[in-house]
Amino acid sequence: MIIGTCYLPGADAITNDPASQYLEKMCYPNLSNATRGTSLQLSTNEIAASLARSSFPCEQEMYIEAVCTANGTTPIDFLAEQECLCTGGYWEAVRGCNACNYAHGYRGSPSISAAAFEHSTASYVSSISAAECHVSPPYQPFSNLLPTVNITSLYDSPSITLASDRFPNNTAVSKYFTATRSMTPGNISGSATARLTSWTNYSGLRYTPTSTPDTTGSPSTSTSATSISAAGSSATNGARAGAVMARSGRCLLAVMLGFTVL
C-alpha cells in the first residue's frame, strides 16, 4: 500500500522503470507533467504548493503532508501537525491514492485480490491514523511513525511488476475513487497556532522523543535530534515538499524537502 508516497527528483529517469513511470503519469499527472513544471517555473519549494487545487488524491496526499508536517520539535509543533492531518482529508487522500495505484495495476504482489488489497490498505490506514490521531498530547512527529528509507537502495531495487490495468492511460479519478469528504488540510487552532512556521531541518535529522508515554498517556515532552543513517543517502518518509517520484518494489514513498507550512 502507499502512504507518504516516496518521491525523489528524477529517480524514475535514473532507474528507467517503465512501470513506475506509468504509475506516476496516472496518479500524479500534474506533478509528472514536465511541460507544466517548465511553464510554471516552479522552484523545488513551490512544487507541492502548486498541487493545492489538484483533484488527484495522490497529489493531494503529497500537498497535505507538505503543509502539515511539523517544522519544529516541541509539543506545540506536533499538536499543529496532528490537527492538520487528523481534522482534514489527509486519510481520504491516502485511500484515494491507494485506489489509483491499484486501479492501474499496482498490487505489491501481482496475485493479490482487490478485496485483499482493500482490506490490507484499510487496516494499515486505520492503524497509522490511530497512532497519529489518538495520542493526547502528541509527543513525536508523524514522520516517526513511518519507515526510514534508504535512497540508494531505491535505485537498486527491482522494477515493479504491474497486474492488469483497469483503466489504461485514463487518469480520471471517477474511474477508481469516490471521495466521502474534501481532501484538504485540517484546521490548526488554539495553542497550536503558536507552532514554528518555517522549515529549519535542512540537515535531514530525524527527531525522536527521549521517552514514551506512561500508562496514563502523559508523555515526557522533551525531544532530541538523531541523525538518520548514511547521511546523504537516506531520508525520512513523509518529511517535506517538492520531490519527484522514486520507486520501491513494495511501495512508492515520498521524501519531501524544504517546504514551509502555510
Summed up:
By secondary structure, the chain is mostly helical. It has helices spanning 11-15, 18-27, 34-40, 57-68, 75-86, 90-103, 114-133, 151-156, and strands at 148-150, 205-209, 223-227, 234-236. The chain has one domain (11-213, 220-236).
Distinctive features:
two-stranded antiparallel ribbon, 262 residues, single chain, disordered C terminus, 33% helix, 4 strands, globular, disordered N terminus, 8 helices, mainly alpha
Helix-strand blueprint:
Blueprint: H1 11-15, H2 18-27, H3 34-40, H4 57-68, H5 75-86, H6 90-103, H7 114-133, E1 148-150, H8 151-156, E2 205-209, E3 223-227, E4 234-236
Helix pairs in contact: 4-5, 4-6, 6-7
* β-strand amount: 5-15%
Structural class: mainly alpha
Q: Using the alpha-carbon principal axes, give the shape.
A: globular
Number of continuous helical runs = 8
Q: What pattern of helices and strands is seen along the backbone? A: HHHHHHHEHEEE
Distance between the termini: 28 Å
What does this structure look like?
With about 260 residues, this protein is mainly alpha-helical. The protein has one domain. It has eight helices and four strands; from the N terminus they run αααααααβαβββ. It has a two-stranded antiparallel sheet with strand order 1-4. It has a two-stranded antiparallel ribbon with strand order 2-3. The longest helix has 20 residues, at about 115-135. The protein is globular. It starts with 10 loop residues before the first helix and ends in a 26-residue tail after the last strand.
